[in-house]
Write a structure and sequence with these properties.
7-stranded parallel β-sheet, alpha/beta, 17 helices
């Protein structure tokens, strides 16, 4: 049996494409859900017979302000309160769904608003083509909700299989705010029976391309038919525009007109309410799985539990697993990884992460089978594929990395550098002018030679070359990153 290499992707794998890590997303969430704003909005909602009990709101705000808890931990706390606070179970469930919908919105807005950033940095993932060529198929198991793998596959023209039934396609009517049909959105389906009792629709024997399994739900996947089935949006074109366009159509044009409601359409917590072809109200429930109790039988969840079973089965097709940008914080995932590695001494795991670290504690007894590399996703892919980046490409990657680390400070620091660099260049040119001989009370340029050559020499002395200046700026910004 041919040995295959597969990829396991955590949040760090999508970071260079513009998607946030858990603490970055947590900071954004906390910056949005300010205590006074939450209390005020909840008060207005309760006046309409909606909202959460004040005790639940205060409990939630208390843990949200805990600097040691990221958003997944906060969600886990709310899940624990489902059981411990029986009198407020429904309020805690609703609060959990509300936070998940906020997370969905933040990730969705990143993809839609930073589409040009994604397109700009997709070429840095081109090493995926080499992995796909060497492995038929290339299995990718992802914890990420984004569509980065889809965008990479589209750019590289790699066939991509999700395990959904390509023959079971449904049509969703797109409508304007008045309810008039303006188009259609296609989606392929994976039924409850297939998820729970059958194999997913991955071609067997394996075909060239990527077999993608998203373990924690996705922005483009929804549960429907009263929570029984799962659907995946089908983009009109296989490119970034097509992928983001399908997401926009689902979130902005699948509607159910409801006079008197905000914006004149029906709204549901963590769901899309829409009118089907016959005008009947239907629901698409967002599939994002988050919190501390994923696939825990004690807690209800949106994503069918069969997805974990398919991960447990399909991971056995690979003998080498490259784990990129995963912090090993999900016990249900770690258990599968450990069982997979324990099964055979011929299996190996290679961990790729920018952080220092060794073998995760739960794998210490399997240390001979585990290696670790300190690198970003794109650095690993370049090395694996033998891709040599130009100096400008490497500089662009450094600039993107440092500006992400600095956040809002990057703009002020860039402006500060430009001022200092301008002053430095001016001072150099002034020194040059002062060194000229004086003839009839004026600087004498006649002895310097051809004007063009003089200009080049002085520009070089002042380091006015754009590439050199950009390199200086990156060095300047990197020094400002907190240790």
């Amino acid at each position: 049996m041919r040995k295959l290499t597969g990829l396991f992707l955590g949040a760090g794998a999508s970071y260079e494409a513009g998607m946030p890590l858990v603490w970055e997303l947590t900071a954004e969430l906390k910056g949005t859900l300010l205590p006074d704003r939450v209390r005020e909005e909840n008060g207005r909602a309760r006046a309409r017979g909606l909202g959460f009990h004040e005790a639940v709101v205060e409990d939630f705000l208390n843990v949200l302000q805990n600097d040691t808890m990221h958003y997944e931990a906060v969600l886990g706390y709310l899940e624990a309160q489902f059981i411990r606070k029986r009198e407020f179970t429904q309020d805690y469930r609703a609060a959990y769904s509300w936070i998940v919908s906020c997370v969905y919105g933040m990730l969705y807005n990143r993809l839609i608003n930073q589409k040009s950033y994604l397109e700009r940095f997709l070429p840095f993932y081109d090493g995926t083509a080499r992995l796909a060529a060497a492995n038929t198929p290339l299995w990718i198991f992802s914890l990420n909700h984004d569509v980065i793998v889809e965008a990479i596959a589209a750019r590289l023209k790699l066939p991509l299989y999700y395990g959904f039934d390509p023959s079971n396609v449904i049509i969703l009517p797109r409508r304007d705010p008045h309810g008039c049909k303006i188009g259609e959105l296609r989606a392929e389906v994976l039924t409850h029976d297939e998820l729970q009792n059958s194999a997913m629709h991955f071609p067997n024997p394996g075909r060239p391309g990527i077999y993608l399994l998203k373990l924690h739900g996705a922005l483009d996947q929804f549960v429907f038919n009263d929570g029984s089935d799962l659907l995946r949006l089908l983009p009109d074109t296989q490119d970034v525009d097509g992928l983001t366009g399908a997401l926009q159509a689902a979130n902005e044009e699948l509607i159910y007109p409801l006079p008197g409601a905000p914006d004149g359409i029906a709204n549901a917590m963590n769901e899309i309410a829409y009118a089907d072809q016959d005008g009947v109200m239907q629901f698409l429930r967002r599939s994002l799985l988050a919190g501390a109790h994923k696939f825990d039988t004690r807690h209800r969840q949106v994503l069918p539990t069969g997805m974990l079973k398919h991960f447990e089965g399909n991971i056995n097709f690979v003998s080498r697993l490259v784990v990129i940008g995963y912090s090993f914080g999900d016990n249900h995932i770690n258990k599968v990884l450990c069982n997979w590695l324990e099964f055979s001494e011929d299996r190996s795991m290679h961990i790729v992460d920018v952080a220092e670290g060794g073998v995760p504690p739960f794998l210490l007894h399997l240390s001979p089978q585990v290696t670790r590399e300190r690198a970003t996703a794109t650095e690993f892919l370049d090395r694996e594929a033998g891709i040599e980046r130009s100096p400008n490409e490497l500089l662009e990657r450094r600039l993107a990395a440092v500006t992400r680390k600095l956040g809002k400070k990057a703009r002020d620091l860039t402006e500060s550098f430009l001022r200092e660099d301008r002053d430095r260049a001016v001072a150099t040119l002034v020194t040059k002018l002062k060194g000229l001989p004086i003839l009839d009370g004026q600087p004498d340029f006649s002895s310097l030679g051809e004007p063009e050559m003089v200009a080049q020499e002085w520009a070089s002395a002042a380091d006015l070359d754009n590439d050199v200046a950009l390199r200086r700026m990156v060095d300047y910004l990197e020094k400002a990153v907190p240790a």
